[in-house]
Amino acid sequence: MQQNPFKPTAGKMPPILIGRDSALEEFAEGLDNGAGAPGRIMLVTGQRGFGKTVLLTEFRRIAATRQWETIAETASPGLVSRLVDAIAPSGMHVSQASIAPSIGIAGVTTASLGQLSLSSATAPLTLRHAIAKRLNSHKIAKGKGILLTIDETQAASIDDLVAIATAVQHVTTAIDETDVPDQDKKGIAIVFAGLPSIINDLVNNKATTFLRRALRCELDSIPVADVRDAFLTTVTDSGRRITDDDALAAAEATDGYPYMIQLVGYYMWQAAQHRRSDIITHDDVLRGIKDALLVFDDAVCAPILDSHTAAERLFLTAMAEDYPNSSAVSDIEQRSHRSRSWVNKYRAALIKDHLIHSTGYGQVAFAVPHIGAYLSRHEAYRGSTAK
């Protein structure tokens, strides 16, 4: 049996990373060009299902091939403590963990956030100190370094994020101030990935202003023509056939949404597999689209809507009546029974969160098309009220 080449599981590396070439190239160049290169500090933003986790996985693969150490974390309580535990030299055992704004260590300048007590040390070890000690160890070769990737950044406390960013800033500065030749300097690279709103909050925090110089990578939808070509190539390379027209129909149904690309590909492949056929037919494509939408609704659309306020959902529901066309702000005002100032407030908030975008004066449309389609198909959010 031929193995399905499409991988819609979250974080699983798919065989196609279409539309992400520039991000991968910029990251690789950051590692290759030495300390201070822009690609060594990156902020990856995008809505759920836009491939942030997959991109972080590929970043770590790129770093590993260059003999960098890689540490992957997903934001949750205790993030700083886990990072220190992962970075600290072997033999040190974490006995207690707490966060403090500033910690003095004998023989070391005042350290930034992320205090941990280690049983084998006489003084608390900070994240900043842990990174510095690891970089100075023989385990990391000249010119190499440590890559930290922080996924689901929106789930982290701002204290943890400030702790991490501040530690990286101090370590980077210390590296720059050494007399070691640039090609021999060991480095630290970090990539934060999360929803647009939290990344904006992180950049605008006074304690992490240096992140304003970080390379921004805003993930967007993939052009339909590129998706069609990817379907054709992936199916053919995996030993099956699909016509240009059917590949285009499948691509159009994804709206260029990376997770949806994997879902449609997976289920249209499975439809052919169930028939024990090497040809993916138009009926297989239609079945694949139908099955993919069911999964996408539960995995992406519902969580996105649930993560927004009742007022924002009311705004989006009012827009859904016009989907797939744009909505007039005046119509949203009338349907929601709210004031123009209320509409303008939530219009700005949803644009900032990359959920909608302006299509002209007084006009907005869904930036994530499947949300509009979901609201058009489901009545669950209709009639909702906001205070």
From TrEMBL:
Q: Where is the Orc1-like AAA ATPase domain?
A: 17-171
Task: Identify the InterPro entries for this entry.
Answer: AAA_16, ExeA_AAA_ATPase_DNA-bind, P-loop_NTPase
Q: Which UniProt keywords apply?
A: ATP-binding, Nucleotide-binding
Asked if the record carries the keyword ATP-binding, the reply is yes
Q: Does the keyword ATP-binding apply?
A: yes
Q: Which domain of life is it from?
A: Bacteria
Gene Ontology molecular function terms on file: ATP binding
Membrane-traversing stretches: none
Q: Which PANTHER family match?
A: GENERAL SECRETION PATHWAY PROTEIN A-RELATED, PHOSPHORIBULOKINASE _ URIDINE KINASE FAMILY
**Listed name of the protein:** ATP-binding protein
Q: Which organism does this record belong to?
A: Bifidobacterium pullorum subsp. saeculare
Organism lineage reads as: Bacteria, Bacillati, Actinomycetota, Actinomycetes, Bifidobacteriales
